[in-house]
Amino acid sequence: MAEVIKDYELCALFRPDLEPEELDKEVEAIQKLIEDRGGEISRVDRWNKRFLAYPIKEYREGFYVIYRWFSTTELLTDLQYLLRYNDNCLRYLILDYTEKERKRRKRLGKVQTT
């Protein structure tokens, strides 16, 4: 049975007191994990420091980094482990963008031809 490749999106929120070099290391560590596990990164967006709607671990600001990539589901377990036990990551959310896009197309009445 062939492995299914899906489109994923990760939004990671990092501590606001990180030095630029430390933040670069965190961003590169996640990119490296995705690529080492066979994923193909399509984009990485780094946002400036943003105010949070409510405090998270006593921080009122944070750096958002958005990753988009294609991979199989086996990568998700390792990625969640890396983020969950990382002291510099305040929160993260991983979305199956394939499903989100399919629902959007269905809602708009667009038929995907393949």
CATH architecture: 2-Layer Sandwich
Termini separation: 19 Å
User: What is the helix fraction of residues, given as a range?
Assistant: 25-40%
Question: Helices and strands, in N-to-C order?
Answer: EHEEHEH
Structural class comes to alpha+beta
How many beta-strand runs? 4
The CATH homologous superfamily is termed Ribosomal protein S6/Translation elongation factor EF1B
Largest sheet: 4 strands, antiparallel
* Rounded average pLDDT: 89
- What portion of the residues fall into strands of 2 or more residues? 35-45%
Work out the count of structural domains.
Answer: 1
Structural overview:
- By secondary structure, this protein is an alpha+beta fold.
- It has a single domain (6-108), classed as Alpha-Beta Plaits (2-Layer Sandwich), CATH 3.30.70.60.
- It is 35% helix and 41% strand.
- The protein has helices at 20-36, 74-84, 97-108, and strands at 6-14, 40-56, 59-71, 89-96.
- Strands 2-3-1-4 form a 4-stranded antiparallel sheet.
- A hairpin with a 2-residue loop joins strand 2 (40-56) and strand 3.
- It is globular.
- The two termini are 19 Å apart.
- The model has no long low-confidence stretch (mean pLDDT 89).
